[in-house]
């Protein structure tokens, strides 16, 4: 196939809200030189020579920051119950892991439930109860020991999730960690807004393992008593403690910083200034079937097929039905002069790439579409317009190198998955700012990256996540993990992007995007690559992301 007439991606300016990644952050591409021209003279006949000169090697994809310190960091959570600490800790964990750092939450409450059971009454948390205080302190120390052992084994950022209410307790934790050469950052969540606290109590009552089998009214009463026990001894973090700290006040309405240093702490601050703890729905979908889905070509800017256009209508109907439910669930009071929520006012934000197949997919949804260049499909470079079979035939080195390391391999003249994740970071931060529902319609590699972030998957598993066509993913953020529902919209699609016939493990139809060559089979064991089989059940079955 010649290159004449191949629809290329439009050369459009970046959307105004797109942010260039900070200087000094990049990926080691020294092992993956690229051709001097993406389209060498001679058309396809010159591709093999160009690729040979480019070496078609795997880029390392290692985050490099001049002056970046590899010193370990522990984020010590501080605050009363029902202030969003666990939600905040889980969000930071998934964000740092998604960036490529190794982060893990160590929750003292999980140790208590594992060793003592989840049915401890509020009196167990009474500071005047010496047996309870002793047991809680021993659990806290065991959790702390496990975290330091994990750091010694290669972890980079530990998140110590507990109330850590008193200055004396924090001093013991800080002293022990600093003695091991670990930096300490206190992250305190303060909330004196009774409405927010009440909502958090109800959320905790509904989701916390402590109250899974407890009557709702009894659970709320017990939890409020537990909070009162902590209030009796709680001390806020002070400058006199000579420590680095971040204070989040009333769900981010005010943030106080003290002694913040280093690249990782800076990334944490950037994230926290955008994030919040309020639950909301995020809808993810690939575009409808495109012309190049049918022909099996990579990249380009093709139009939707008739089936893709039917999916666009089905997506509009689905979003309108979801919006009606969302509007009906919103609280309002006629006594306060409120008007009842309307469907028009409750429509989600709609974000797409700048490519026509995504814009055509949302054309019937009656709201403004924000087009992000950062949401464009992975750039296949000199392979755009080819099929997998033709890549394997004319550029076997490229096919073999990408199969060996799909995450880090950079198409000659194009991108790697690591490159895509890097440009998605501004989208993630903007997504965290939103307090209402958001619909993102993009491409296979891009949706994989966003799904991996929301469901706490590592970078390594990202390229294997199964994102079928004509399916809506509804992810609802919660304190203990994101709740997933999948909605296949019953519009048939053709899947023709296959990898070479020799790749026996990758001979699965149903994963083609017609953009960027994403046709590998998903993992089936529920590990880092993709959701467990139960997550793929039809008609919106709920699945909770592994925390």
TrEMBL record:
GO terms for cellular component: cytosol. GO terms for biological process: fructose 2,6-bisphosphate metabolic process; fructose metabolic process. The lineage of its organism: Eukaryota, Rhodophyta, Bangiophyceae, Bangiales, Bangiaceae. Keywords: ATP-binding, Nucleotide-binding. It comes from Porphyra umbilicalis (Purple laver). GO terms for molecular function: 6-phosphofructo-2-kinase activity; ATP binding; fructose-2,6-bisphosphate 2-phosphatase activity. The keyword ATP-binding applies. Residues 66-279 form the 6-phosphofructo-2-kinase domain. This is 6-phosphofructo-2-kinase domain-containing protein. Signal peptide: none annotated. SUPFAM superfamilies: P-loop containing nucleoside triphosphate hydrolases (SSF52540), Phosphoglycerate mutase-like (SSF53254). Pfam families: 6PF2K (PF01591), His_Phos_1 (PF00300). The keyword ATP-binding applies. InterPro entries: 6Pfruct_kin, 6Phosfructo_kin, His_Pase_superF_clade-1, His_PPase_superfam, P-loop_NTPase, PG/BPGM_mutase_AS. CDD domains: HP_PGM_like. Residues 519-537 have a biased composition (Low complexity). Residues 1-46, 491-547 are annotated as: Disordered.
């Amino acid at each position: 196939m010649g290159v004449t007439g191949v629809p290329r991606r439009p050369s459009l300016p970046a959307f105004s809200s797109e942010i260039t990644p900070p200087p000094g952050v990049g990926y080691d591409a020294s092992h993956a030189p690229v051709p001097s021209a993406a389209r060498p003279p001679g058309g396809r006949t010159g591709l093999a020579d160009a690729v040979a000169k480019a070496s078609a090697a795997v880029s390392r994809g290692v985050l490099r920051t001049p002056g970046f310190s590899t010193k370990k960091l522990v984020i010590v959570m501080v605050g009363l119950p029902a202030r969003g600490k666990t939600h905040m800790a889980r969000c930071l964990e998934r964000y740092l892991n998604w960036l490529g750092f190794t982060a893990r939450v160590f929750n003292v409450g999980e140790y208590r439930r594992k060793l003592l059971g989840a049915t401890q009454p509020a009196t167990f948390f009474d500071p005047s109860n010496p047996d309870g205080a002793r047991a809680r302190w021993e659990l806290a120390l065991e959790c702390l020991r496990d975290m330091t052992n994990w750091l010694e084994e290669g972890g980079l950022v530990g998140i110590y999730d507990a109330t850590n209410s008193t200055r004396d307790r924090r001093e013991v934790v800080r002293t022990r960690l600093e003695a091991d050469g670990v930096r300490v950052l206190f992250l305190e969540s303060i909330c004196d807004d009774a409405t927010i606290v009440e909502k958090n109590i109800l959320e905790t009552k509904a989701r916390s393992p402590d109250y899974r089998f407890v009557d709702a009214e009894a659970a709320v009463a017990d939890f409020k008593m537990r909070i009162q026990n902590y209030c009796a001894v709680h001390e806020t973090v002070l400058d006199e403690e000579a420590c680095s700290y971040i204070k989040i006040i009333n769900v981010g309405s005010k943030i106080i910083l003290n002694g913040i240093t280093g690249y990782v702490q800076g990334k944490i601050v950037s994230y926290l200034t955008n994030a919040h703890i309020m639950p909301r729905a995020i809808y993810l979908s690939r575009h409808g079937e495109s012309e190049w889905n049918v022909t099996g070509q990579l990249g380009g800017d093709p139009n939707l097929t008739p089936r893709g256009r039917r999916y666009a209508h089905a997506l509009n109907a689905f979003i309108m039905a979801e919006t009606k439910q969302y509007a009906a669930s919103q609280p309002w009071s006629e006594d306060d002069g409120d008007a009842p929520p309307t469907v028009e006012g409750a429509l989600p934000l709609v974000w797409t790439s700048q490519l026509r197949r995504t814009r055509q997919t949302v054309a019937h949804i009656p709201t403004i579409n924000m087009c992000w260049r950062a949401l464009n499909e992975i750039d296949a470079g000199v392979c755009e317009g080819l099929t997998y079979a033709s890549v394997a035939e004319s550029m076997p080195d490229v096919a073999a190198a990408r199969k060996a390391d799909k995450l880090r391999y950079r198409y000659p003249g194009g991108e790697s998955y690591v490159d895509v994740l890097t440009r998605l970071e501004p989208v993630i931060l903007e997504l965290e700012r939103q307090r209402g529902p958001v619909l993102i319609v993009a491409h296979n590699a891009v949706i994989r990256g966003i799904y991996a972030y929301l469901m706490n998957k590592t970078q390594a598993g990202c390229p294997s996540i199964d994102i079928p066509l004509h399916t809506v993913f509804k992810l609802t953020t919660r304190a203990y993990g994101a709740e997933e529902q999948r909605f296949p919209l019953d519009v048939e699609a053709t899947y023709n992007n296959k990898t070479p016939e020799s790749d026996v493990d990758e001979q699965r139809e149903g994963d083609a995007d017609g953009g960027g060559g994403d046709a590998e089979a998903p993992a089936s064991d529920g590990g880092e690559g993709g959701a467990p089989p139960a997550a793929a059940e039809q008609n919106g079955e709920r699945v909770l992301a592994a925390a």
